[in-house]
Amino acid sequence: MGPESIRRPAGDLPLQGLACYDGPDALLIRDAHSDGLIEHFLQGYRRDCKLLLARRALAGDGALADSQPFARELEGRSHLFIFEGELSGLEDGRKYPTGPYTPIGQTVAERAFCVLMARMRALWLDGKPLPEVRLAVVTDFAARMRPLGLANFLYSDSELLFVHGHHRPDDPDLSGLFVGLGAGELRIASRPGRDGDWQPLISGEVLMIRGSEILERVPPVILWSQMKD
Q1: Can you give the pTM of this predicted structure?
Q2: Which of 34, 77, 100, 195 could form a disulfide with 24 if both were Cys (CB 3.0 to 4.6 A apart)?
Q3: How much is the pLDDT for 67?
């Protein structure tokens, strides 16, 4: 995926954060105050990104520590996270431990990432886990986040991209994320693009992606503890 695929159409919000993977590491730019740093970078950057993550600025953004994508290192890889939503109750450390991953900023989004990374760490310490094992952890994590509020997110471990679609912040009946294929690229966005074939994710669905291929689509999972008698 090249940087040209996310150039900002007129009228859209500026980009707040961008990450471009190069092997296990990622070039990360966060422009907390929307000063145009990312747009300036894109004008001169000509290398292709096999996986590129970007987030546009939202009302209330401003602190660098709260800017996305969030990044953490685990077993020699840069893990990245982009989140849209709001969760209530995640501060309960006994129920949602973050392990060694302490949030730097004040957002629920970063804390959710730390919770996920603590769970992933248990897998990676025994060597690179199988894709299906990683998918199971992400699917379980997503199922535990949904009852707390809104949780659209993208998570990458440099090899695989995991996508969880929930719903729109302003309308629970509309999909929160869309997947599109066009010009040989697979794209994920909160709004369908103007070109290519775009399809909404089912609320609660989790995708596992490598490159431009969707390896697995997991329908919404309800944990036994969430089932009503």
Answers
A1: 0.91
A2: 77
A3: 92
Please list, in sequence order, all residues whose beta carbon lies within 8 angstroms of the beta carbon of residue 127, skipping any fewer than 6 positions away: none
CA 164-168-67 angle, 5° bins:
70
Kindly state whether residue 52 falls inside one of the protein's structural domains. no
Q: Is 6 helix (H, G, I), strand (E, B) or coil?
A: helix
CA atoms within 13 A on the CB side of 173: 0
Rounded average pLDDT over 173-202:
90
**What's the token pair of residue 225?**
């503890």
Please state, in angstroms and rounded to a whole number, the distance separating the CA atoms of residues 91 and 137: 20
CB atoms within 10 A of CB 216: 15
Q: Which two tokens stand for residue 69?
A: 């994508």
Which domain range does residue 171 map to? 69-226
DSSP 8-state symbol, 200: E
Domain count, the chain: 1
50 within some domain: no
In the prediction, which pLDDT does 20 show? 92
DSSP, collapsed to helix, strand or coil, labels residue 159 as coil
Q: Would the pLDDT of 58 be above 80? A: no
Q: What is the pLDDT of residue 75?
A: 96
